[in-house]
């Protein structure tokens, strides 16, 4: 098993194209062709985590937070980041991070929070825009089903909770093969008319190469006519935060205490209780204050996230309750997502969850 094999399994769920511009997800240290002896999963990479990997015999660390966000001009050990990198390099340990891309995707960080709380009818709070593309191609009638199935298998045709979505219209295609052509139908140097199906479907941009390859391999024509259009629609499956509802409403204080227990929170910082009964809940793993306005717009009873600053709490304006459970606390179960991903794909492989508590914050 190589680093690239394991990385690919993660990126099938959380493509790097979904990370934010400030982020640094991906392979940060190491050779993608390195043969992996074992995997250690963590939230943050520290010297203690690298020491743990050495002790366990793991030479690939998968973390949620990147050890490097910005470039460095020297590597002398003057900071914990540099010391951690030096230690990993010395022991030939690769480090990979999946951060804001894992926040954004279906089944990622915020969805895990929803699962733990017990929310239903969940959806993305702020979907990404400009991610979708439309494929249009023209296929002989007898081959339309084959081509559709091929591009669906490549990831095209998903809209919300539906897959295999396409629009099909019959028409007449015309073409004339040149002297060096080898036409599938018709004859060289003669204008030919063929009954064709115009197939339209959409896909996420990161799947472009895979979808086009599937189209070209399944299409019978020597020269395949197709168009790719950018789509400005929101992608309902990808984006920031989530919102959903409880099966049954709960008393606000009972709900807060339940959250405190689930996430093992030392202290919940919360604003005034606006609604005594909690039903509609917005969540965001990590630092989610930038989503407050949208949570208010969606008329959530409470917004659960971390890292609210003092003055940002005022922005609740008695329209909902902010419940700041802490950055680490809201993302700690990301380790379980990585563990489940890797062990499902590679069931007979050594995968460990770090025993190091990397939360830099203590509560008294």
UniProtKB/TrEMBL annotation:
Any Gene Ontology CC annotation: cytoplasm
UniProt binding sites for a divalent metal cation 2: 64
InterPro entries: DUF34/NIF3, DUF34/NIF3_bac, DUF34/NIF3_sf, N-reg_PII/ATP_PRibTrfase_C
Spans through the membrane: none
The UniProt record lists the keyword Metal-binding: yes
Top-rank taxon: Bacteria
Keyword Metal-binding: yes
Name of a matching Pfam family: DUF34_NIF3
Keywords: Metal-binding
Protein family membership: Belongs to the GTP cyclohydrolase I type 2/NIF3 family.
NCBIfam families listed in its UniProt record: YbgI_SA1388 (TIGR00486)
Assembly mode: Homohexamer.
Name of this chain's protein: GTP cyclohydrolase 1 type 2 homolog
Species in which this protein is naturally found: Ancylomarina longa
């Amino acid at each position: 098993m190589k680093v690239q094999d394991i990385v690919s399994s993660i990126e099938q769920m959380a493509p790097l194209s979904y990370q934010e511009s400030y982020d640094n997800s991906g392979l940060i240290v190491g050779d993608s062709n390195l043969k992996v002896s074992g995997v250690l999963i963590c939230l943050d990479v520290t010297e203690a985590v690298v020491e743990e990997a050495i002790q366990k015999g793991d030479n690939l660390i998968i973390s949620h937070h990147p050890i490097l966000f910005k470039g460095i001009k020297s590597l002398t050990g003057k900071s914990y980041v540099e010391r951690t990198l030096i230690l990993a390099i010395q022991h030939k340990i690769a480090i990979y991070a999946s951060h804001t891309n894992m926040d954004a995707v279906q089944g990622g960080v915020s969805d895990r929070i929803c699962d733990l709380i017990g929310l239903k009818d969940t959806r993305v709070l702020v979907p990404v825009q400009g991610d979708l593309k439309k494929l249009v191609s023209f296929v002989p009638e007898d081959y339309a089903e084959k081509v559709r199935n091929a591009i669906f298998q490549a990831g095209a045709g998903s809209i919300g909770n539906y897959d295999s979505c396409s629009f099909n219209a019959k028409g007449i295609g015309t073409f004339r093969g040149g002297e060096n052509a080898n036409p599938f139908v018709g004859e060289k140097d003669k204008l030919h008319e063929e009954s064709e199906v115009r197939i339209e479907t959409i896909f996420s941009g990161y799947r472009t190469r895979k979808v086009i390859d599937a189209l070209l391999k399944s299409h019978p024509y020597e020269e395949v006519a197709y168009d790719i259009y950018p789509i400005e629609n929101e992608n309902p499956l990808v984006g920031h935060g989530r919102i959903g509802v409880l099966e049954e409403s709960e008393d606000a204080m009972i709900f807060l205490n339940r959250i405190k227990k689930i996430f093992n929170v030392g202290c919940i910082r919360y604003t005034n209780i606006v609604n005594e009964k909690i039903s509609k809940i917005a969540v965001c793993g990590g630092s989610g204050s930038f989503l407050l306005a949208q949570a208010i717009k969606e008329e959530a009873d409470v917004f659960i996230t971390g890292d609210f600053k003092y003055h940002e709490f005022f922005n609740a304006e008695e329209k909902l309750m902010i419940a700041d459970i802490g950055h680490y606390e809201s993302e700690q179960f990301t380790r379980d997502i990585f563990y489940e991903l890797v062990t499902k794909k590679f069931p007979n492989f050594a995968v460990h969850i770090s025993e190091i508590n990397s939360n830099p914050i203590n509560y008294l």
